[in-house]
Design brief:
This protein has about 500 residues and is mostly beta strands. It has helices spanning about 20-30, 40-45, 50, 70, 75-85, 100-120, 210-215; strands at about 5, 35, 135, 140-150, 155-160, 165-170, 175-180, 180-185, 200-205, 215-225, 230-245, 245-255, 275, 280-285, 305-310, 330-335, 340-345, 350-355, 360-365, 405, 410-415, 430-435, 440-445, 450-455, 460-465, 475-480, 480-490. About 15% of the residues lie in helices and about 35% in strands. Mean pLDDT is about 95; it is low at about 1-30. The protein binds heme C. Heme C binds near residues 51 and 80.
């Protein structure tokens, strides 16, 4: 064993885990007396690659390639961890758990996942097309059509008016009306915003009874009073007044705004999606704004899913009422950056959210539950050091995801397939990824994971995925800025 690459954990730097004091890490280490790897890639290269290959291709010491779609499946997370911890003595692989702590063992699993995705992409893993250019999916064939190709700038969210016109938010701070694929108007009189890193104009949600009440719900980065370099997610509703070619935002009402002292200059993790439950409430999400320990603070807006009455008042049966700050509105906590939120056809609420590096999550969002950030995560740190293990410790009451993306897909955009265009996908979740440039179809039953199929890859960064009124699956892309849709094909 090459001790030079090891350091006692007290010396390890955890760039995305400042809340874990060096002292507490050192303590957990001295309890177990085990070492923590200082650099994940280097530890793999120096200890594992002579048998498994620098890229996981195998061949040394009787190993097989790790680069197979079967072994990429999440069901192998625990068996991989166990193999590394306990070794495969009869095959000559030592038990790394004798010298390494569990975080280090887990970090090897994350590293192998990164090698696998790179290797499998290089082998051509992606949705399959046939000679006619149609995608041949597991349950449906489909084709991808351009819908809007001009006039968008970092489109963030898409929704429809009952007459078929589409509303699209552009992150820099505009909302446009789209008719027959053409941007026909920019809505005037919308609130001022600030494009602070990932912030700006975000979600748009047309009330299910729009024809009766005319309400449109909207979330955006609200600039701090008197300052243009700090902001926080705010949720409002308003109406559109059309006259001739113009559209104007009127009757605006504020539904959620946090205290000014919670506004910060951080450019990350604003959330935010808005969902109706059909029972008079909305749910929406705010990310932890880079202040990860605040995701555990019920009084602060960071890292929460919220529930309000549709008029913005706080429901009396919310779980954390009366604790001060924003607690009256909190539904669940311990989230990192939920940029996908949807109510399934079975009435379950789902979110997708980012982890740092490896371990973006699909969670069933349940009243009062803790989703664990930053206490428990599948990830490693961006700087290639271990973060933790994805198993709650005894006494930690944390709800774990039913699916995790490893490596991260940078989860953004989530919907459920409705309508009749894709009968064999009906009720399945469709989940986008920015960095992953992907859309996955995920089937759940009774809240449990059933299957996953990648249905879009490599067309651009996916910011929103929405089933249209026609039942087609619309995808808002960035780089290039456009909207495409998946349409069933023979
Ligand atoms: C002396 C050679 C050798 C070294 C060094 C070695 N392994 Fe292995 N490993 C094997 C063999 C042989 C197997 C069983 C055959 C196989 O799965 O390819 C195995 C199995 C595994 C498996 C289970 C694979 C599966 O398909 O289920 C994982 C994961 C793994 N090793 C990871 C590692 C990691 C991480 C390291 C370094 C910390 C490491 N191994 C070091 C030889 C080695």
């Amino acid at each position: 064993m090459k001790w030079m690459i090891w350091a006692m954990a007290a010396g390890a730097v955890a760039c995305s885990a400042p809340q874990l004091s060096q002292g507490s890490q050192a303590k957990s280490e001295s309890e177990s007396g085990k070492m923590q790897v200082r650099n994940v890639t280097q530890a793999y290269n120096e200890n594992c690659s002579n048998c498994h290959g620098v890229n996981g291709e195998g061949g040394g010491g009787g190993t097989k390639s790790l680069l197979t779609e079967d072994k990429f499946d999440q069901k192998w997370d625990k068996p991989f961890f166990d193999a590394i911890k306990n070794g495969v003595p009869e095959m000559g692989m030592e038990a790394y758990g004798e010298g390494w702590d569990d975080k280090s063992i887990w970090s090897m699993v994350v590293h192998i996942r990164e090698l696998q995705l790179r290797g499998l992409r290089a082998q051509g893993m992606r949705p399959k097309t046939n000679a006619a250019g149609l995608y041949e999916g597991q349950r449906h064939n489909y084709k991808v059509e351009d819908v809007v190709t001009a006039g968008l700038r970092t489109p963030w969210a898409v929704d429809w008016l009952p007459d078929g016109r589409m509303l699209v938010t552009n992150r820099p701070g505009s909302m446009v009306v789209v008719k027959d694929g053409q941007v026909v108007a920019t809505v005037e009189g919308m609130p001022r915003t600030i494009e602070l890193g990932q912030g700006g104009y975000m979600d748009i949600a047309v009330h299910p009874k729009y024809s009766e009440n005319g309400w449109i719900y909207f979330s955006f980065t609200d600039p701090a009073e008197g300052a243009n370099n700090r902001g926080l997610t705010k949720v409002v509703r308003g109406k559109l007044r059309f006259s001739g070619a113009t559209a104007r935002w009127v009757n605006e009402e504020t539904l959620f705004v946090s205290a000014q002292e919670n506004y910060t200059g951080a450019g990350v993790h604003f959330g935010s999606r808005i969902v109706f439950d059909g029972k008079g409430h909305i749910f929406f999400s705010i990310g932890e704004r880079g202040q990860q320990d605040l995701a555990q603070d019920l009084t602060r807006p960071n890292g929460k899913v919220f529930r309000l009455n549709e008029d913005g008042t706080r429901p009396t049966d919310n779980p954390f009422r009366g604790r001060g700050g924003d607690s009256d509105a909190v539904w669940s906590y311990g989230h990192r950056n939920p940029q996908g939120l949807v109510m399934g056809l079975d009435g379950r609420l789902w979110d997708t959210e980012h982890a740092p590096r490896g371990g973006d999550e699909l969670n069933e969002v349940v009243k009062g539950e803790n989703y664990g950030w930053p206490l428990v995560s599948f990830c490693i740190n961006y700087n290639d050091t271990p973060f933790g293990t994805p198993w709650p410790a005894a006494g930690q009451n944390i709800r774990m995801p039913i699916y995790r993306w490893m490596p991260s897909n940078a989860a953004c955009g989530l919907d459920v397939v409705r309508g009749n265009a894709f009968p064999n996908w009906r009720g399945d979740l469709v989940a986008g990824g920015l960095a992953g440039q992907s859309v996955d179809r995920i089937r759940t039953r009774e809240g449990k994971f059933v299957e996953r199929e990648e249905i879009v890859f490599g067309m651009g960064r996916v910011r929103d995925v929405v089933t249209g009124p026609d039942g087609y699956v619309y995808v808002a892309l960035n780089q290039p800025d456009k909207i495409v849709r998946l349409v069933p094909a023979p």
